[in-house]
Design a protein that fits this description.
Blueprint (H helix, E strand, L loop, with lengths): L1 E7 L4 H12 L4 E8 L6 H7 L4 E3 L8 H14 L4 E3 L1
Parallel strand pairs: 1-2, 1-4, 2-3
């Protein structure tokens, strides 16, 4: 079984489509987390509604792209992802 983390910035429509396809086709995957870079991203609500842990890493609060990337990688590692999808 592969564990998946999704990155979103808004509605999360790609994440929702992948999640629903995985459920409908009984893919051997587990969604371990969803990370948004905007606290108001609408996709957070869907993930929470289906029991997927969420995190927000707001890129605007980091002094550099490198600092943001480090924080993002730490969260991906914390969710123990095999795959990261956009």
């Amino acid at each position: 079984m592969h564990s998946i983390v999704s990155l979103i910035s808004g509605r999360g429509s790609n994440f929702e489509a992948i999640y629903k396809a995985a459920q409908a086709k009984s893919w051997d995957v587990r969604f371990t987390g969803l990370i948004a870079n905007q606290p108001e991203a609408k996709g957070l609500a869907f993930a929470k509604s289906v029991g997927i842990p969420t995190a927000v890493i707001d890129h605007r609060t980091y002094p550099s792209r490198e600092a943001f990337d480090r924080a993002l990688m730490q969260q991906i590692d914390a969710f123990s992802a095999d795959l990261v999808v956009l």
